[in-house]
UniProtKB/TrEMBL annotation:
It comes from Desulfotomaculum copahuensis. It is a multi-pass membrane protein. It comes from the Bacteria. Pathway: Cell wall biogenesis; peptidoglycan biosynthesis. This is Phospho-N-acetylmuramoyl-pentapeptide-transferase. One of its GO terms (molecular function) is UDP-N-acetylmuramoyl-L-alanyl-D-glutamyl-meso-2,6-diaminopimelyl-D-alanyl-D-alanine:undecaprenyl-phosphate transferase activity. One of its GO terms (cellular component) is plasma membrane. InterPro entries: Glycosyl_transferase_4, PNAcMuramoyl-5peptid_Trfase, PNAcMuramoyl-5peptid_Trfase_CS. The chain crosses the membrane at residues 12-33, 54-74, 115-136, 156-178, 185-203, 209-226, 233-253, 259-285, 306-328. Mg(2+) binds at N177, D237.
Amino acid sequence: MDGVWLVLGETLLLSLGVTVLLGPLAIPVLHRLKFGQQVRDDGPASHLQKTGTPTMGGVMFLAGITVAGLWLAGRSAETLLMLGVTVGFGVIGLLDDLIKVVLKRPLGLKAREKMLGQVLLSALLAVLAVSCLGRGTDIVLPFSGFSVPGGLTIELGVWGYIIFAVLVVTGTANAVNLTDGLDGLAAGVTAVAAAAMVCLALLTGEAGVAAVLAAVAGGCLGFLVYNHHPARVFMGDTGSLALGGALGAAAVLTRSELFLVITGGIYVLEALSVILQVISFQLFGRRIFRMSPLHHHFELAGWSENRVVFTFWAAALLFAALGLAGLYRLG
């Protein structure tokens, strides 16, 4: 086990190092190409000064994750599949970002185009996990004894599980995307979630998946060097979709989909705030929050950007601890 933790540490540090080293190279290039972020007119006034900050910085940690994953995480089918999904979601985000900054289409890819790519990648992951990797078609319930024999499961069947897995992976990717609205928020929250999921992966014997998750955590920490407030670069959809795809893929490969819902509780809250806001406005003509996603509500309530980010980071730690507690049986 000591050797496993050594590899995890090396993978985290290599991903972190590659990401940090790419910063002085990538950020000036993004500046010269004028790949700047467009800021919402209806957002907090303090965000207007962020206009023009380079986006698509997710390529930095995506490179770090890929290099560290291929070099140190091994070449198992699970590892390569997780890396493939991560890069695939990153490519979808990259296309979205390029359309925004090059073609000046603020909405990027059409929603159905973006979702189609995500669904196809997620479905391919689920099919391969079930048919080639012996993942099974059941889901494990938290707090039922995942860490010992006899944990409670629900059998979904092949098609039921594929649909469920698609919802988990695409839902996670888009929830991370919604969370990426403040300097350092998504990177910090994802570093915590990925670190917690390392333990879940080790428990299921997926050391390769655990190593890729360590690379994800390292890449996020390295990116924070440039993305903390005031951010010098944003990850863009390139980064947020890649991170969400990585977490979702890891959950599928380790049978921990429902644990991700707990461990990634911040993502759930951010996504729910948007859903509830839309439903409330359409049904009653009233908004529940000052603005959604949730982090903007607190900004408009007078919180500083750093206060919101640090509070959400702290909450992410609590959700991670709760997710790990879910490994054990209640009572």
